[in-house]
Amino acid sequence: MMDDPFEIDEFAASPEMRLSDAPAPAYLDNLNAEQRDAVETLDGPLLVLAGAGTGKTRVLTTRLAHLLETKAQSERLHPHQILAVTFTNRAAKEMQERVAQALGRPVEGWWLGTFHSLSARLLRRHADLIGLQSNFTILDSDDQVRLLKQIMDAEQVDPKKWPAKQLMGIIQRWKDKGLIPERVNESVEFANGGAKHLYQIYQDRLKVLNACDFGDLLLHCLTLFQKHPDVLRQYQNTFRYILVDEYQDTNVAQYLWLRAMAMVHRNICCVGDDDQAIYSWRGAEVGNILRFESDFPGAKVVKLEQNYRSTPHILAAASKLITFNDGRLGKQLWTELDTGEKVFVKGVWDGEAEARLVGEDIEALQRNGTGAAQMAILVRAGFQTREFEERLITLGIPYRVVGGPRFYERQEIRDALAYIRMVAQPNDSLAFERIVNVPKRGVGKATLQTLHQYSRDQAIPLPAAARDLIDTEELKPKMRQSIGGLLGDFKRWGEMLADKSHVEVVQAVLDESGYTDMWRTSKEI
């Protein structure tokens, strides 16, 4: 774990502010006693332990509305002084909509988003202080793996023995712990102990590319705060109130980021459930929620225990199971809902037998009048749907798989985005490499190796290397013409931005590059 660079003064918590004398706003109606307590406790550190189905989202959004409604009048609180952190963009959008609904008006100017989106926003303001330009590229996992493969190839690391994806996971775990290469002191069995060295090369290469990965967004912020305390102080003074959702899923870097922000005003409200901490495998640290009271002396803890979603039988089964977990703060969920059916546990030999059993249960339910839309099969991972799908097809039962490949993970979307990135940032090496031969332009492995070697030797981005080499004998005439033509197209498309809409430019790029025709042909085949 990263050495703690932030000391917290152990001064008493700020007094709680309650507006009991004023008429209760309509948005406070229908809150239970615990929910209302969490909403109206505005000042000082607050931990809300929200069990599953206890109205967590409602409490968060109502608390935000209450802050904006009451503090704006009594203490001239402005929306930009509120920092609200969620774990998904969808949750952030829902929070925005529900706060507007509660207040009867839209709210603009507050800092609302995920850890990554908020950190990116902050870093673009101060990019020069961490050695980047404000238009830096954020790499996805596919870009990361390709870049690591290039580095491993240059360092003569066998990719069959030491897969690039494994190295990516190691580096990501270090970043989740807030560790820059210089602070890594753990030994990892990768490339004969060379993982730390490869991590350093990877970070150096990212700087050359004016890029960062998702882990860097938090890591660079921590570095920025440590090296430029005046910047940290600016945000500490700005954010008078901080709200955090799904606190049990925060990793060490996110924890340090949040705690640094909250050190001055200490008006931080974290909502989470230690019983729902399931992401330790990807760096989440449940200890963050368990030590909240020691991090913020005088903190108040409110437990939301009334469940509005599940039946008593389901709650009883879940509560019994979770009692075997030692690392928890403890709460007892209850509900006023009807008893409902009992929870059944059935054992089978394998996935095929499981699918057969579930199929029989579905048929029995349908015979008793239960509609297909009232049934769902939940699986732990996407690959587990296959045997269920095969069985449902055999039985002639209609079904719909929710999920599947995400929009931005589809190959054609990644390709299109790479073209767009090259228009916006002509020196984006990874985007250039992805599309330089898509559609086919005769650019083979040997040509790419020549470009990469020149890029490394000169410490310049790949497109810059290509611009240099198209005027030399290093490339064959056909390659000079092909790559030169593509680079010329990108320059022309970039110039179109001055008098064309973004939609028109994107359409021109995809059509004139030949990508649209290639995609249509592949779909017809």
Task: Tell me what you see in this structure.
The protein is α/β, with parallel strands linked by helices and 525 residues long. Helix 3 links the parallel strand 2 and strand 3. The N terminus is likely disordered. It has four domains: 157 residues, Rossmann fold (3-Layer(aba) Sandwich), CATH 3.40.50.300; 80 residues, Orthogonal Bundle (Arc Repressor Mutant, subunit A), CATH 1.10.10.160; 75 residues, 3-Layer(aba) Sandwich (Rossmann fold), CATH 3.40.50.300; 113 residues, PCRA, domain 4 (Orthogonal Bundle), CATH 1.10.486. The chain starts with 32 loop residues before the first helix and ends with a helix. It is globular. It has a six-stranded parallel beta sheet with strand order 3-2-6-7-1-8. It has a two-stranded parallel sheet with strand order 4-5. It comes from Thalassospira lucentensis. One of its GO terms (molecular function) is 3'-5' DNA helicase activity. It catalyses: ATP + H2O = ADP + phosphate + H(+); Couples ATP hydrolysis with the unwinding of duplex DNA by translocating in the 3'-5' direction. One of its GO terms (cellular component) is cytosol. Belongs to the helicase family. UvrD subfamily.
Work out the count of structural domains.
Answer: 4
**CATH architecture assignment of the largest domain:** 3-Layer(aba) Sandwich
Described by the principal axes of the CA atoms, the overall outline is globular
- Mind telling me the CATH class of the largest domain? Alpha Beta
User: In the CATH scheme, what's the topology name of the largest domain?
Assistant: Rossmann fold
What is the helical fraction, as a range of percent?
A: 40-55%
EC number: 5.6.2.4
InterPro entries: DExx_box_DNA_helicase_dom_sf, DNA_helicase_UvrD-like_C, DNA_helicase_UvrD/REP, P-loop_NTPase, UvrD-like_ATP-bd
Binding site for ATP: 50-57
Keywords: ATP-binding, DNA-binding, Helicase, Hydrolase, Isomerase, Nucleotide-binding
